[in-house]
Amino acid sequence: MRAFRAAVEAHDMDAVEALLADDVVFSSPVVFKPYRGKAVTAAILRAVERVFEDFRYERVIGEADGRDHALLFAARVDDREISGCDFLHLDASGRIAELTVMVRPLSGAQALQAAMAAQFERIAEEAQERQDARAASAD
Amino acid sequence: MRAFRAAVEAHDMDAVEALLADDVVFSSPVVFKPYRGKAVTAAILRAVERVFEDFRYERVIGEADGRDHALLFAARVDDREISGCDFLHLDASGRIAELTVMVRPLSGAQALQAAMAAQFERIAEEAQERQDARAASAD
Description:
homodimer, alpha+beta, Nuclear Transport Factor 2, Chain: A, 5 helices, NTF2-like_dom_sf (chains A, B)
């Protein structure tokens, strides 16, 4: 959890990606259906990092050595203030097996949806590049 | 935190209200500006209890004797599935000083907004009744 927080705060998205389990399940604040796998989750998190401004963690809930953590944050998307939370559920090896994000208020969630929609093509490209690279390295 | 969870699960809204600090700050999933005070917060929570169907807590994060807790829940509003979280911050006497709720996905937050808007008059009436009762008892 500390490693995830430190990586996000350093805007080090490679380090964030390295903390994800291969079969991570990512539940977004906007879409009901979860995304599955490291490639698409990493691509989405890179887009989120581009979209959020003035991002800062404000409170952490969960035991330091536990498997579940809630990291409350504040940020802006365009001119909308957003409060949100990253929920991390770690697997036995300490990788992030489930990542769920919620945000409030409704105006902030709508601004986030619009900003993420504008990132759609780049997300799809980056997810594909990651999957191709992984398939190549598995050959 | 256990008392709050038990009260919510028993649909005992008087017990929920008794756990709130007089100057509780309630941040809703829909509206940016927080609500302040026990009367309006209790009235809103009663409306939420009428609006959510099949409500169940699914995960609790936070140390049992700590001041901060995250209670993840699932529910339905009309035909929309909602995931959400109650964040409790307790004061030194164990009362709930801050209660923040977030929900996902966007379609669920929108359904919740519509359902809560339909409760507006009853919320305003119940909040007023509580304030009047408190003013009378303080005379």
